[in-house]
């Protein structure tokens, strides 16, 4: 990857290779500077996507993918925001296409993009509580209503006997019981 670690982020950006893609990690305070640098100096003018990754116990990763159409070079850009106060400056001023992706990441993970022009829910119904892509979010629908089809051999009434029923991963043992 040309341009790293030289430039304004020298010593503050960690550059690695992951399955053939160049990955650049920075602190949250360097996020906008990194995005601006790769767009203006390295030619990564195409913003592909941005999302969050729940990284327990203490952080969320915010990941962006950008592309240089002239060199056909891809970059994966990452930063980690603390779980107890997940805030990051908005990238909308650098890449307008980040608008939708930041709204989705805000809604699904709870990461607040400060300065975003319209940070409101995008996909979930009005009144929805919680952030469903966090690993600590209980998927209530998987407990409240049984799956209508056979999941395991024998559950259809044919073949081997069924296994003991268990709760889906991440659901507390007493969740949904009348005694809880």
Automatic annotation (TrEMBL):
Q: InterPro entries attached here?
A: NADH_quin_OxRdtase_su_C/D-like, NADH_UbQ_OxRdtase_30kDa_su
Q: Which residues form a coiled coil?
A: none
Task: Return the annotated region ranges for Disordered.
Answer: 148-180
Task: Name all NADH:ubiquinone oxidoreductase 30kDa subunit domain ranges.
Answer: 24-142
Which PANTHER family does the record cross-reference, listed alphabetically?
NADH DEHYDROGENASE [UBIQUINONE] IRON-SULFUR PROTEIN 3, MITOCHONDRIAL, NADH DEHYDROGENASE UBIQUINONE IRON-SULFUR PROTEIN 3
* Family from the record: Belongs to the complex I 30 kDa subunit family.
Any idea what this protein is called?
NADH-quinone oxidoreductase subunit C
């Amino acid at each position: 990857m040309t341009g790293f670690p030289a430039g304004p982020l020298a010593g503050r950006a960690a550059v690695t290779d992951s399955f053939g893609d160049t990955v650049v990690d920075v602190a949250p305070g360097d996020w906008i500077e990194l995005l601006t640098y790769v767009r203006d100096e390295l030619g990564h003018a195409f913003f592909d996507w941005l999302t969050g990754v729940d990284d327990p116990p203490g952080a969320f990763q915010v990941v962006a993918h950008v592309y240089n159409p002239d060199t056909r070079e891809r970059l994966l850009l990452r930063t980690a925001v603390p779980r107890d106060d997940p805030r990051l400056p908005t990238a909308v001023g650098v890449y307008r296409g980040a608008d939708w992706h930041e709204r989705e990441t805000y809604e699904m993970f709870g990461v607040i993009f400060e300065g975003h022009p319209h940070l409101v829910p995008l996909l979930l119904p009005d009144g929805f509580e919680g952030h469903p892509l966090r690993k600590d979010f209980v998927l209530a629908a998987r407990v409240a209503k049984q799956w209508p089809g056979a999941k395991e051999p024998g559950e259809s009434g044919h073949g081997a006997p069924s296994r003991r029923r268990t709760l889906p991963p991440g659901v507390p043992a007493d969740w949904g019981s009348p005694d809880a």
